[in-house]
Amino acid sequence: MGNLVDEGSGFVSGFIATIGRANVGKSTLINRMVGxxxxxxxxxxxxxxxxxxxxxxxxxxxxxxxDTPGMHKPRHRLGERMVRAARESLNEVDIVLYLVDGTAPVxxxxxxxxxxxxxxxxxxxxxxNKIDLVSVGEVEKVCREYGALGEFEGVFPVSALxxxxxxxxxxxxxxxxxxxxKYYPDDMVTDRPERFIIRELIREKVLHLTxxxxxxxxxxxxxxxxxxxxxxxxxxxxxxxxxxxxxxxxIGRQGRMLKEIGRLAxxxxxGLLGSKIYLDLWVKVKEDWRNREGSLQNLGYGEL
Length: 304
Description:
- By secondary structure, the chain is an alpha/beta fold.
- It folds into two domains: 12-176, P-loop containing nucleotide triphosphate hydrolases (Rossmann fold, 3-Layer(aba) Sandwich); 194-298, K homology (KH) domain (GMP Synthetase, Chain A, domain 3, 2-Layer Sandwich).
- It has nine helices and nine strands.
- The protein has helices at 26-34, 77-89, 108-117, 136-147, 166-176, 194-209, 244-251, 256-273, 293-298; strands spanning 12-19, 52-57, 61-67, 95-101, 124-129, 154-157, 219-228, 232-241, 276-285.
- The strands form two sheets. It has a six-stranded mixed beta sheet, sandwiched between helices. Strands 7-8-9 form a three-stranded mixed beta sheet.
- Strand 7 (219-228) and strand 8 (232-241) form a beta hairpin.
- Helix 6 packs antiparallel against helix 8.
- The longest helix is centred in the last third of the chain and has 18 residues, at 256-273.
């Protein structure tokens, strides 16, 4: 139940689904909009696996962004659920924000997503991202080419990384949101619990440090989190892979890879919790977990 706002106050609120191909910068854009890092970011495709709610609250609005998994051709059950979660979000929101990569030519994947959006009654805004990497003289041309994909309420060149163009995009979002309540408290930036965010922060470091099939074969489960003496929080997490060979890669020679994952994750988790942590990481094999219903449920991918 949202907090009541006086009628006539001009306050607007609503839900915005971000959609686009994998690796176009959806998580980076939402982090920039919200003003802090809530979502993990990686150059690797299919970084986002769950539909995650992120909240921006200003004096005159509350924008609730849904970061959806990137649209892609699924190769396993997890991938099928990710694509389904992205599609379902389109019917649950007040606005759809379609994000494309301005450094890449319009491709088949962009056209397929645009075709899916054509039947929607929900207003669609198009954001052409990564314009910081496009020459000034080409920006208008790129926006025109992507804008020809469909009927959009507006086309906005933006840089999610640097924040360029996001003020104009936010103004357009606010103009399309209906009058409404504050659904969440002012200081809340996500509805996901701390364990979920810790899990994702650890997985982000795996994505940064590993290559080939390993990063996409890893799931993280935070199995224990409890306060200890001297304001220390003990966190035990298991990193699940699909093959014994992947386990060896993730641990690394003399445990170096696992230690580096822990070192990088520890600092961000301490910032999240506001206290020192002891991060206890384990690597385990759960064969073909991305295609096994029970494993998907147990690892938090039952409902995306």
